[in-house]
Amino acid sequence: MQRRILFQIVHSDALNFQTIPNFNFTFARTLATHVEEADPLYADVPKSRRTKSERKPYPTPMNVLIRRAKEEREARKAQPCRLLEEPPDNGLLVAQLVEVAHRVYRARESLLLGISKLVDFIPIQRCRYCFEVHIGHVGHEIRTCIGPKSGLRSAKHEWRKGGVQDVIYFPNCFHLYDRVGKPRIGHDERHIVRRIPAIVELCIQAGVDLKKYPTRRRTKPVYCIEGRIADFEAQTEKDATGNPNSEDCKLAIDFNSSTENGRIGDKSILDNLIIPEVQPSPEQRKSLRELSSVTLESWFEMISGAKKIMEKYCVWTCGYCPEIQVGPKGHKVRMCKASKHQSRNGLHAWQEATIDDLVGLNYVWHVRDLRGPPLVNNLKRYYGKAPAVVELCVQAGAHVPDQCRSMMRLDVVPPGRDEVDLVT
Q1: CA-based R_g, the chain, Å
Q2: Cβ pair 126, 133 in contact under 8 A
Q3: pTM listed for this prediction
Q4: Quick one: which H or E segment has residue 30?
Q5: Minimal CA–CA distance to 325: which of 147, 179, 153?
């Protein structure tokens, strides 16, 4: 309503701005921009970086980071030897986030299992030359390809069949056995330490215990002596094997047996779903709709839980490349090949990570009818976008979530091909 009133005021013919010498056009433009950004109904898709040399924006302003560093340095000078009391900096688990970590891990397994079932019903298209993904029987005609020799093809995509890895991907990071005692991986250890999905590493550090990826659990907090961590707790044989030896671990619920077997969510839906050859029957469509709803719920549960954990557990990403590392500090492996890596000797420019860095959110164009004509390049400003997981679940029958309703442009009716020239 505010946007409509402002539009009428600015574009009114009865209002003559020449008679108002004190009218500030900059203020009007700023107010209009503020109204557009503040209105959640007109929230747009997050914009990507313009050039590869441009650094990712800082989630926390630089002046706040500088102030925190000064406060930590002053506290270190005032008390060189102190006992760290706040988890997880002291090596202990955050009791409130242990169960959240288990839910995130279970939601990820349920999400992958659901997507693997849905891709058999809903076709996935991927460009041969770039990372563009489209959900539908026919790829769109929007010219947004940035792959090799895209200028010779007029930025047109060349589509081929995609899979689960094109809908969602989880970047890998180095697994830390002791996140406090040895928070960094050296360059010589790059082939020794295993790499696992970063969201799994985040769940492990937050309290999930997996036999494949052992980690050390402490019962007593560590000390900080002049900025260095000192641990006076003796490492027992049980800790050396990677099994938990902490009272905080008793708060966790044992979900490993259910997650390792892949039995997540509604078992009847996931197990009894039959893949049709042509089109699903009414009963299978009902099961498909239920499966898409379960998958979409797992997606939002994983994202919301990961955000809660990231408020306490540090996650770092490179400012120029997609590399990510979960832990108090980033690793020292010289593997960055992005812009200005020569000045850093191949080291990454670590900064605070966001949920977009932890989980690959691949945005795709929203299609109203899978059997309809492909999307046209001239009408791309009328089309909406959504994360590929959300678009896949919606096309399978799930309800459109309120979080993505604005960016999917459901309230916009695109004109037909014969009406393109009539649109101003």
Answers
A1: 26
A2: yes
A3: 0.77
A4: helix 25-38
A5: 179
Cα distance between the two ends of the chain? 23
Sequential pLDDT tens for the chain (424 residues): 555 554 454 454 444 434 334 434 333 334 333 433 444 545 567 676 667 778 888 999 999 999 999 998 888 888 888 888 888 988 899 999 999 999 999 999 999 999 999 998 899 999 999 989 999 888 999 998 988 888 888 999 999 999 898 999 999 999 999 998 888 999 999 999 999 999 999 999 999 999 999 999 988 888 888 777 777 776 654 444 344 433 333 333 343 333 333 333 444 444 433 333 345 556 556 688 899 999 999 999 999 999 999 999 999 999 999 999 999 999 999 999 888 888 889 999 999 999 999 998 889 999 988 888 889 888 888 888 999 999 999 999 899 998 888 888 888 877 776 665 555 5
Q: Are strands 172-174 and 124-127 parallel, antiparallel or unpaired?
A: unpaired
Q: Are 94 and 86 in contact (CB under 8 A)?
A: no
Query: Are the CB atoms for 213 and 175 separated by under 8 Å?
Result: yes
